[in-house]
Amino acid sequence: MTETLLKYGAFFRAAFKQGLLNRGMLSGLLFFLFILLFIYNRLWEVIGIQNNNSSLNTIYIWYLLFAEMIILSLPKPDRVLTDDIRSGTMAYYINKPVSFFLMRYAEALGSMTVSFLVMGGVGSLMTLALTGVPPFEWRYFPLIIIMCWLSSAINVLFYCGIGLSALWLESTRTLAVAVERLAFIFGGAIFPLSIYPDWFVDIARWTPFYSVYYLTIKLVYDFSWTNLFEAAVLNSLWTVLIVGFVGFAYHHLNKKVNIYGG
Question: Which residue of 54, 116, 192, 217 could cross-link 73, Cys pair, CB 3.0 to 4.6 Å?
């Protein structure tokens, strides 16, 4: 077990170091994040003044920060896996003492973690400068960060599953774009679902985006042990389902390579 963790940890560290060296990409993410925070900060300031609720700005800007940390940190592993399957690259790893899927997943986690931590650190300073006192107690901040990182890891796993669906689909990019749009709609990736009507929220509850995005990010302005437990349980359930699909697809991939040679 320890040897396995060290093996895939090496892939994680290599991707992490490579991500740190990619200063152009990180600078672009931070610039885009700043523009989003600045624009929406002005928007919620105006809405808060009109509704005599000055706390709206603080709540929703911190919510937006953590939502974008999950969204923007995604390194698009679906495209990498799709290209590996289409080009036959994965056949090279089938008989190697390393899982092709876990290798790619570890690499994607490394890349994601770099972007997540950089945006979390710099983004928190930006948001503090824009809003002042955050809507959460600082003692809960590490838990919120951990939960959002775990949601990001589930998000990476979800998109890895989309990449493996190249076994059956001609275009996984269309599916990835559709999933991304659904995450924005049913996950409350820009605005919390609390501002939507109840019937819409009831529909969103049946999607993985409800827990991976909304319930997790909601901890920023409505932290409680009950909410934390609910988010953890639902995220665990969806992780099991995603892992089940990934296991099925990867087994089918191995079988196809062994029988047909790719």
Answer: 116
0.85 exceeded by the pTM?
yes
The predicted-structure confidence for 33-50, as pLDDT tens digits, reads as follows: 999 888 888 877 776 655
How many structural domains comprise the chain?
Answer: 1
Q: Which residue has the higher pLDDT, 88 or 196?
A: 196
With a pLDDT cut of 90, the percent of the chain lying above it is 37
Which string of DSSP letters, residue by residue, matches the chain?
Answer: -HHHHHHHHHHHHHHHHHHHH-HHHHHHHHHHHHHHHHHHHHHHHHHHHHTT-THHHHHHHHHHHHHHHHHHT---HHHHHHHHHHHTGGGGTTTSSS-HHHHHHHHHHHHHHHHHHHHHHHHHHHHHHHHSS-SS-GGGHHHHHHHHHHHHHHHHHHHHHHHHGGGT-S-HHHHHHHHHHHHHHHTTSSS-GGGS-HHHHHHHTTSHHIIIIIIHHGGGTS--HHHHHHHHHHHHHHHHHHHHHHHHHHHHHHHHHHHH--
Tell whether the model's pLDDT for residue 149 goes beyond 60.
yes
Q: Which residues contact 194 (CB under 8 A, 6 or more apart)?
A: 201, 218
Mean pLDDT to the nearest integer, 115-125:
93
- ∠ CA 62-76-152, nearest 5°, is 40
**Cα-Cα-Cα-Cα dihedral of 29, 20, 63, 218, to 10°?**
140
